[in-house]
Design goal:
heterodimer; A: 258 residues; mainly beta; four-stranded mixed beta sheet; 3 helices; 14 strands; B: 275 residues; alpha+beta; six-stranded antiparallel beta sheet; four-stranded antiparallel beta sheet; 6 helices; 27% helix
Chain lengths: 258, 275
């Protein structure tokens, strides 16, 4: 039986990933992308853990690579789908970092220096990180038997994040069809192909920008009514929640032609 | 998305470097929007380029201070007067979103695009029919000009926003884009300026100097028939801008609503009694 889980993610470490690189400043967007979250939640169990320190595929994402063992379609085949996470409460911390040179003698290469091949100093900068205590919410569609870990690690520094999961009772959920609004962030590349997106706010971030507060039409999972009102009390959940039904990883993704 | 839809969207950028914003960036911003349109729908972009009246308006870049550090936000507002422009513009923005935008040696990265009303105070959505069906604003219509606004008049530049210049200019643009059912006839505006606080401002840039007036003006119309049309056009001004070069960031306009009981639902603040 398919279940919808509501997850609250609480940061116990700073979380940093470079959503935007602006000269010396590396900034973290206050949304968690669902592809990254999926790897954090299911790597090592549902998704094979890959170690590729060398070779052509090293340091390359393999979300939909046809030969990669840990491609996201593996989760789709297991009927698991993780939605992007939206912030409930967040704050930032800016840390200045300086990466020491590994050579015997290394002088900081500044912009314009001899040998500096980038337009910014290559070994120091400022990282704008999501601070400890920030809280996020996401939803997971998965079979009843799935095991969702209580702790995960996220971001470049592998920050520790607590996951609190609750299964939403099936009586709160109905499947509808038609025009609807979704306040929760969505990944446009994962939407069902028959879903039409009419208007949205766009959050620009790699690897695929997210839609927020979107107006869509198609089949959707609606959470409303008395049962929902009763269940969501004291849970910081919205009065009405609509989520596209039938989202799959990369449903709208077209691999770039070589 | 109907062709008669009106949108006002905001595009947020972050500064990539320590840099100073010049007053005049209008041409570069116009070119950037055309580039997004070109990426989204080249045929439509060509039509927009060749058209006499541009179906979009731009605000100047808004920021806390013109002296930017890397990571500082700047905001651009785009008024869309033709509903079919929105999807190509979004498609172009998506295609360009990971690239660095470079205008006059300044570099920015795209951060967010807001199109749903409520996401940003400046975001609005309406249609020509919806504006035409809205209630009148009453005798007084107050407009606030956030960027220099001027009119071309007999080979010269008129900076004072006389009622005929403002509302007849808006009427011409409205009639160009609005459906036949809500066209506005030629009118003798017969209104007057009831109050104003304006100052002239010169914006300097690489292309020269542009002058215009910024501030607010309150117009008063006695005729209820004219009041209706003036109200429609004042609401339209928030999407279209007022005066010349609205597609380059000039004449960015906001309608000032009365803050009395009823319009915002709040009680007016009681006046202080002199001791």
């Amino acid at each position: 039986m398919m279940m919808l889980y509501s997850c609250v993610l609480t940061l116990h470490d700073n979380v940093f990933f470079a959503s935007r690189e602006m000269g010396l400043l590396f900034e973290t967007e206050k949304f968690f992308h669902n592809w990254g979250l999926s790897y954090a939640l299911f790597s090592g169990r549902e998704l094979p853990q890959m170690y590729r320190l060398t070779g052509e595929a090293a340091q390359r994402p393999s979300y939909f690579h046809p030969t990669a063992e840990n491609r996201l379609e593996v989760l789709s085949d297991l009927d698991i789908y993780v939605f992007p996470a939206q912030p409930l409460q967040w704050s930032y911390q800016i840390n200045t970092f300086k990466a020491a040179q590994t050579t015997y003698y290394g002088k900081s290469k500044q912009f314009g220096d001899k040998g500096a091949d980038r337009n910014y100093p290559i070994n120091y900068g400022r990282a704008k990180e999501l601070a400890v205590g920030s809280r996020f919410r996401t939803y997971i569609l998965a079979p009843e038997t799935v095991v969702i870990p209580r702790w995960i690690r996220l971001g470049k520094w592998a920050g520790k994040v607590q996951v609190e999961v609750e299964a939403i009772p099936p009586e709160c959920q109905t499947i509808d069809r038609g025009d609807y609004c979704c306040d929760h962030p969505l990944n446009p590349l994962d939407l069902p192909p028959e879903t039409r997106v009419r208007l949205y706010d766009r959050v620009v971030m790699p690897p695929a920008s997210l839609l927020r507060r979107s107006q869509l039409s198609g089949e959707y999972l609606a959470l409303r009514g008395d049962a929902w009102d009763l269940w969501r009390q004291e849970r910081e959940l919205p009065q009405k929640l609509n989520l596209p039904y039938g989202s799959r990883y990369g449903a709208n993704y077209h691999a770039p032609t070589p | 998305m109907t062709n008669t839809a009106l949108h006002r969207i905001t595009v947020d950028f972050v500064s990539c470097d320590r840099q100073t914003l010049p007053d005049l960036l209008g041409r570069a911003l116009h070119a950037q929007v055309m580039q997004w349109l070109q990426a989204g729908n080249p045929e439509l972009a060509r039509q927009v380029h060749d058209a006499n009246l541009t179906p979009f308006s731009l605000s100047p870049l808004r920021t806390r201070s013109p002296r930017l550090r890397s990571g500082d936000r700047v905001h651009l507002t785009i008024g869309i007067l033709q509903g079919n422009l929105l999807q190509p513009l979004f498609a172009g923005l998506c295609a360009w979103e990971q690239q660095v935008c470079s205008w006059a040696n300044l570099t920015f990265k795209l951060e967010r695009v807001n199109a749903i009303p409520g996401s940003d105070p400046r975001v609005q959505a309406s249609s020509y029919e919806a504006i035409a069906a809205q209630d009148t604003l009453g005798t007084d219509v107050e407009l606030r000009f956030h960027s220099p606004m001027s009119f071309k008049q007999k080979q010269g530049i008129q900076m004072f926003p006389l009622p005929e210049l403002v509302f007849d200019g808006l009427r011409r643009r409205w009639n160009h884009f609005a459906p036949d059912a809500v066209q506005i006839p030629e009118l003798d505006w017969g209104g007057w300026v009831a109050a104003y606080d304006l100052k002239s401002q010169a914006w300097k840039g690489q292309g020269g100097v542009e002058i215009g007036a910024i501030g607010w003006v309150r117009y008063r119309f006695g005729d209820p028939y004219i009041q209706d049309y003036a109200s429609m056009l004042a609401r339209f001004a928030e999407f279209a801008g007022v005066g010349r070069k609205t597609a380059q960031g000039f004449g960015y306009t906001e309608l000032v609503l009365k803050r009395g009981r009823g319009s915002s639902g709040q009680k007016p603040r009681p006046r202080l009694q002199p001791k």
